[in-house]
Amino acid sequence: MQAKLGTTDRRHTILIIGISRGIGRGLAAEYLRRGWFVIGTVRSSAVAPELEAMAAGMAGRLRVERLDMPRPSAIGTLRERLADDRLDVLIVNDRIVGASDWTA
Question: How far is C-alpha 42 from the chain's CA centre?
């Protein structure tokens, strides 16, 4: 049985790590088109105006959170901010990093 991307049921929520551009942004747009509530993360708030344009007409179904994956403390902070959210799907679509990119 093949899984579908989703329905128009508002109860479905997806967290996509990395929606600044490319595959992540495309996935966010598709899930929004299908009626899902999308929580997406970006490393830089510089892309906010572009994402605001993407969210136009989506009735508040796109929420953007800031996250820098190589910083472990940032992951914990995001977890706290999402503590009251029920997630149905998680997609981790972040940059490829080497060991030297990870900081404490």
Answer: 8
| Alpha helices, H only, the chain | 22-33, 48-55, 72-81
Residues ≥6 apart with Cβ < 8 Å to 92: 17, 18
Q: What is the CB-side half-sphere exposure of residue 65 using CA atoms within 13 A?
A: 20
**What amino acid is encoded at 27 in this protein?**
L
Burial 50-86 (b: 16+ CB within 10 A, else e): ebeebbeeeeebbbbbebebbeeebeeebeeeeeeee
Model confidence over 27-68: pLDDT tens digits?
999 999 999 999 999 988 777 777 878 878 778 899 999 898
13-95: in CATH 3.30.450.20: no
Predicted TM-score (pTM) of this structure = 0.77
